[in-house]
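Example 3.2
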Amino acid sequence: MAYSGQERIGYETGYADGVYGRPRDNPYNITTVPRSYRAYEEGYDEGEGSTTPPRGPAGERGPTGSVGPQGVAGINGQDGADGLSTYYGVGPPVDGVNVPVDSVPGDSYVDTSDRGALYTKTGSTTWTFQSYIADVSLASQVDDTGGSPQVIYKGEAATGAGLGASVWRIARITITTDGGGNDDLATQWADGNANFDNVWNNRAALSYS
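Structure, written as tokens:
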């Protein structure tokens, strides 16, 4: 019969200590008996054992845990720049009437009642006519003033436009003769653009570039 723990201390008083090589003050000193104490006292050699025992079969999967707390919200991204807008309406564009009051320069407007007349906002409250996006025929006026150099005015507007209405785009064509006797033509536009926003009757007084 083998004893362990305090029973062994009381049973072995000298003889057993000498047999097992243990000091009496610490009969189970781990440095002396590093493996199973009972197996050692029974006289069996436990052996060194494996430092990497085989893995047993996987246990059953446990239930899904509860949802964890929500993480900290990320930093908001920086807002992008506002893009330009195109508006549609009836009649020429008027802020607060058929276009929003917060429209900005560069925005476009299409008058659906006038052959798709296209306007671009060029100032805080100014809309400038650009062209007709619908397939329309234009009326034209030509004024050959003669003279030297010869000056010809050519105007275009929607069919039926009045000569006193600010709906004309006007070009000035200047013909000069060079030293070789050849005619040279130079074309300039009223206000420096081809917008339909001039009066044909004022063609001679307009600024061209």
